[in-house]
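Quarterly update from the structural biology core.
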Amino acid sequence: MPKLWNETIESHKREVRDAIFEATAKLVSDHGLSGVTMSQIAETTGIGRATLYKYFSDVQSILVAWHERQVSAHLHELAEVRDQAGNAADRLEAVLEAFALISHQQHSAELVALLHRGEHVARAHQHLNQMIRDLIAEGAKSGDLRDDVAPGELASYCMHALSAASSFSSKAAVRRLVAVTLAGLRRPRR
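Predicted structure, tokenized:
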């Protein structure tokens, strides 16, 4: 097949997948996880059920694919924040705040239970842990952050502490949590 034809087909498939994701997210938001059917998704998307089944086998597979895309976008966003100018401590603070604000986004407990047990979530956590660990090691080397605790332990501390942001009611509370977490990373006074 000509290259233009392949690009057109791939573009069309992406657009259909995006429309399916949008429709599913809206329906789950409006009706809850158990209140959504493939027929509703097909109708809301404006495609036939047979076409929908060519892309996904059930509602859960749609949600998992949508979540994988969201997680990938979050990791990309965090990498962009990490790569901004500044010293390691400043970049770490920016990454931790961005991570906490992402964690703060509200999702139903039912949806979180379904989506956060996938392999893609474990890989994302490992990637984020490595990103935070590297920034902490760089900050410790420059003297901006503590060097009396292993960077891996401090990265785990940060991720566990900031996961509490998911239960907070305001962004101000999330930012206070980030400040307290960062205080634990500062070099102790001697």
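Residues 13 and 57 are 16 Å apart (CA to CA).
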